[in-house]
Amino acid sequence: MSLQMRLLTPVLRARGRSLVSAHALRDAVAQGRRAASTPPPHEMYQVNHLTSRTVTVDGTTTTVHELVPATDEPRDTPRDICLYLHGGAYTAGLTKQHWDIVNAIAAAGMKVVVPDYGLAPEHEAAGVFAVISRLLQDAVTEAAATGHHVALAGDSSGGGLAAGTLLRLRGELPVVALALISPWLDITCSTPGTAEIERSGRDPWLHSAGLREAGTLWSRVVGDRDPLVSPLTAGPAALRTLPPVKIWTGDRDILSPDAVAFDAALAAAGVPATGHSLHRQPGAFHDYPLLPVPEGRTARADIAGFVAEQCSTAGRNN
Question: What is the Cα–Cα distance from 84 to 102, expressed in whole angstroms?
Answer without folding.
Answer: 7
